[in-house]
Every structure is written in structure tokens, then in C-alpha cells.
Design brief:
By secondary structure, the protein is an alpha+beta fold. The protein has helices spanning 6-11, 30-36, 42-48, 52-66, 71-82, 121-130, 137-142, 160-171, 240-248, and strands at 18-21, 86-93, 100-107, 112-115, 149-151, 156-157, 177-179, 182-184, 189-194, 200-205, 215-220, 225-226.
């Protein structure tokens, strides 16, 4: 990402046919932007018209308001947003003549993060009811910010729709997983993140409740193994936000 513009990323490594920066398209009215990009929130369109500093401060405060208070997480987010060079709203088209998709971007010195539009409260409740799994509150709260979020070049955190599909796939696995010598039923796991190009997932693990919520562990499909929170230097986290801090570092 270093040295590249966000537009360069979308039309290069991002694999998109075309991309538009709403910040640099004053001729694109709300009506025209919505027609071009059905999933564009009006709040994002309005945000794209603000001065860069105001826009960054607004989205930073939005993160704080959406996520539950955890001192170490808030401290980290302060540091993270201090390193964000610019935020923006972009419309990207995968193929010619297909609809554009909306993204909110966070550009740092050496990397880029992209978020898809958030879910409405009623959509979060519907999603929660559709999955028979104890989804952590901090994970559900993140959908108020983005329904799908990734570092540039990565598969990232699944959208609600993709997560449901991955869940079905995991439950159909012919083999179980192992935590050391212990066999782990795939139904106890819920994948919410995949590392691009690798069969490595981060999954909630229903048999581990470190802080009253479901913890999450690294799952390797090739080894059929999951990481142990009982050992040092393993990618097991007591909360979703603890994992998110790791992902943003």
C-alpha cells in the first residue's frame, strides 16, 4: 500500500474494474450516488463532503460510541486513529456494468483498511436470531460500524451473510478439530475471519468463556488444530475486541 493511492489499490491489487472517490466527485449528487451504489448509506455520502480532519474525528468518535468501553481497547483506538492519515468513502465496481459497492477506507502510512456499510439495529437482531450460537456482544456491536472489514489484500472479518455461509460449511466438516489431544466438535466453532489465501480462520469457541463471553481461537483446517489459550504466544483471545486490537496493530 505504501506509495499507492486508495484508487490505485482498488483498481490494482483490489481487483476492481473501477473506483470513485466521493470526496473528489462533487458532481455526484446523493440521488446519482445511490442509484449507482444501492448499499451506500446516506450518512456516508454526507460524511464524504466534510473536511478531512472533521471526517476523521467524526468516524473516530463513532467507533467509541458503537463499541463497549474497555480501557485498553479505547487506549489502543486512540493510538490507531492518531496514525490514520486519511479516511474516505469510495465506490468500487467489480465488473463493467455491475453495481458499485460502498467502502469506508482508513489509510495509514503502510497499510489500508476497508469497511463495508454497517447493519441497522433491526438487521443485527435478525442476524442474531438466524444463528444458533451465543454471539459476543462486542462482536455484534462492531456490525454497527462495518458489516465486513478487512486489511487491504486480506479476506478479513466476514460480513453477516458470508459468516452464515462459512458456519454451514464448518458444520459439514467430515473431521473434527483438536485442542492438543482433545477432540473438538466443529459445531462448537464459529468462524468470523479468514486469512487470505490460507485455510486459517479465527473462530469463536463455545467451550471457552473467559470473561462471560465466548472467546476466540485460531483454527487451521490443514492441521485440524485450534490454538490453546493455556499457552503463551498463541492466537487465542478472550474477547473479539482483543482480537481486533491484534488485527489493527
Amino acid at each position: 500500500m505504501k506509495g499507492l493511492s486508495v484508487i490505485d489499490y482498488f483498481t490494482g491489487d483490489g481487483g476492481y474494474h473501477d473506483a470513485i472517490s466521493l470526496q473528489d466527485a462533487p458532481e455526484l449528487s446523493w440521488e446519482k450516488a445511490k442509484e449507482k451504489t444501492p448499499n451506500l448509506p446516506k450518512g456516508w455520502w454526507e460524511l464524504s463532503k466534510l473536511d478531512p480532519g472533521v471526517k476523521l474525528e467524526f468516524i473516530r468518535d463513532y467507533w467509541f460510541n458503537a463499541l463497549p468501553y474497555q480501557p485498553h481497547v479505547y487506549h489502543f483506538l486512540d493510538t490507531f486513529f492518531a496514525g490514520v492519515l486519511e479516511v474516505g468513502v469510495f465506490l468500487a465496481q467489480k465488473r463493467e456494468n455491475s453495481p458499485y459497492e460502498a467502502f469506508f477506507t482508513y489509510r495509514l502510512k503502510d497499510r489500508l483498511y476497508l469497511g463495508r456499510p454497517p447493519l441497522l439495529e433491526k438487521e443485527i437482531e435478525r442476524f442474531k436470531r438466524s444463528i444458533s450460537y451465543p454471539l459476543p456482544d462486542d462482536f455484534l456491536n462492531f456490525f454497527r460500524i462495518h458489516n465486513g472489514f478487512a486489511k487491504g489484500g486480506d479476506s478479513g472479518i466476514f460480513s453477516s451473510g458470508a459468516l452464515e455461509e462459512e458456519r454451514k460449511w464448518f458444520m459439514q466438516a467430515q473431521e473434527g478439530f483438536f485442542l492438543g489431544e482433545k477432540s473438538v466438535d466443529p459445531e462448537l466453532l464459529l468462524p468470523f475471519y479468514r486469512s487470505f489465501g490460507l485455510d486459517i480462520y479465527q473462530c469463536f469457541y463455545k467451550d471457552w468463556y473467559p470473561d462471560g463471553e465466548v472467546g476466540n481461537v485460531l483454527c487451521s483446517l490443514s492441521d485440524r488444530a485450534i490454538s490453546s489459550w493455556k499457552e503463551d504466544e498463541t492466537l487465542a483471545f478472550p474477547t473479539f475486541l482483543d482480537w481486533l486490537v491484534f488485527y489493527l496493530e
